[in-house]
C-alpha cells in the first residue's frame, strides 16, 4: 500500500510566482488535511477537504492561498504571489471517511523556498 | 481551542539512557498520536493511542484520557532516536504540540 504521496519534494519559487503543491491520499482515503510547518516550529492546521468540498479552512490565510480536492486527481494547495514568509514545509495527511477515531497518515512534505 | 503542551522542550541524552516525554492537553479528545520527525523532516507515526498503553520495541506510550496527558517512553536510546517528538490530539482536527527536541550523543 502506497502511503500519502506529496510532490514535489522541494520547490523553489521567486517572490511573486505561484506555487502548486500536490497530495495524493492513501488508497481508499477520501479526506485530506494540509498543515504548514515554519522553521523550528510545530505543524499548524491549514485546511480540511473531502472530495470536491472544503470542510474547514479556518487555518488558511484568507488571501493568496487556496485548496482543492477534485473528484479525480490529487489535492492541490495553491499559493499565489508567494512571499518569503511562505517558505515552510507543507505536509498533507489523509484519513478514511468521516470516522474521527482513526489515525492520520502524513506524507513526506513539500519544502517550499521563496527567494 | 484545545491547547497541547509538551515537556521538556529540549532533551540531551547519551546513548543507552532512558527518557520520558510528556504531553498535556486542555480538553477531551477523540484521538492522540505520537510522531517522530527525523532530521530529514519526515514525520513518522509512532503511536495512535487515545487511551491505554502500547509498546513497540524500545518505545512505549501511555495515555490517561481522564487526566488529559500522555507519556512517551524511550528506553536504551540510540543516536537514530534524535529528532523532534510531537504529540497531536484530535477533537475535530489534529492539533500538534510544540514538540520535544531530542539529541542523543554516542
How would you describe the overall organization of this protein?
The complex is a heterodimer of chains A (115) and B (106). Chain A contains no helices and eleven strands. Chain A is mainly β. Chain B is an all-beta fold and 106 residues long. Chain B has no helices and eleven strands. Chain B has strands at residues 4-7, 10-14, 19-25, 31-37, 43-48, 52-56, 59-64, 69-74, 83-90, 94-96, 100-105. Chain B starts with a strand and ends with a strand. The mean pLDDT of chain B is 94. Classes of the chains: A mainly beta (115), B mainly beta (106).
The coarse overall form of chain A would be: globular
Q: Whole-number average pLDDT of chain A?
A: 93
Distance between the termini of chain B: 41 Å
Radius of gyration of chain B, whole Å:
13 Å
Secondary structure tally, helices of chain B: 0
The overall strand count of chain B is 11
Biggest interface and residues each: A-B, 22 and 21 residues
Q: How does the helix and strand content of chain B classify structurally? A: mainly beta
Helix vs. strand class of chain A = mainly beta
Please tally the β strands of chain A and state the result.
Answer: 11
Amount of helix of chain B:
under 10%
Summarize it.
The complex is a heterodimer of chains A (115) and B (106). With 115 residues, chain A is mainly β.
Sum up the structure in keywords.
heterodimer, A: 115 residues, mainly beta, 7-stranded mixed β-sheet, 4-stranded antiparallel β-sheet, globular, B: 106 residues, 6-stranded mixed β-sheet, 5-stranded antiparallel β-sheet, 11 strands, 0% helix
Amino acid at each position: 500500500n502506497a502511503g500519502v504521496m506529496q510532490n514535489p519534494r522541494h520547490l523553489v519559487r521567486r517572490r511573486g510566482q505561484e506555487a502548486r503543491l500536490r497530495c495524493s491520499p492513501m488508497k481508499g482515503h477520501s479526506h485530506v488535511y494540509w498543515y504548514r510547518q515554519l522553521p523550528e516550529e510545530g505543524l499548524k492546521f491549514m485546511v480540511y477537504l473531502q472530495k470536491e468540498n472544503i470542510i474547514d479552512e479556518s487555518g488558511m490565510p484568507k488571501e493568496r492561498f487556496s485548496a482543492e480536492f477534485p473528484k479525480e486527481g490529487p489535492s492541490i494547495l495553491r499559493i499565489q504571489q508567494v512571499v518569503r514568509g511562505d517558505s515552510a514545509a507543507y505536509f498533507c495527511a489523509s484519513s478514511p471517511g468521516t470516522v474521527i477515531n482513526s489515525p492520520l497518515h502524513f506524507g513526506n512534505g513539500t519544502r517550499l523556498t521563496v527567494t | 481551542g484545545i491547547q497541547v503542551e509538551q515537556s521538556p522542550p529540549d532533551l540531551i541524552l547519551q546513548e543507552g539512557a532512558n527518557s520520558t516525554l510528556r504531553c498535556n492537553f486542555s480538553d477531551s479528545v477523540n484521538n492522540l498520536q505520537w510522531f517522530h520527525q527525523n532530521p530529514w523532516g519526515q514525520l513518522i507515526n509512532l503511536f495512535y493511542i487515545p487511551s491505554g498503553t502500547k509498546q513497540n520495541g524500545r518505545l512505549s506510550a501511555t495515555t490517561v484520557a481522564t487526566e488529559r496527558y500522555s507519556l512517551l517512553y524511550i528506553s536504551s536510546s540510540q543516536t537514530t532516536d534524535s529528532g523532534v517528538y510531537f504529540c497531536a490530539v484530535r477533537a475535530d482536527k489534529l492539533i500538534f504540540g510544540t514538540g520535544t527536541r531530542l539529541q542523543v550523543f554516542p
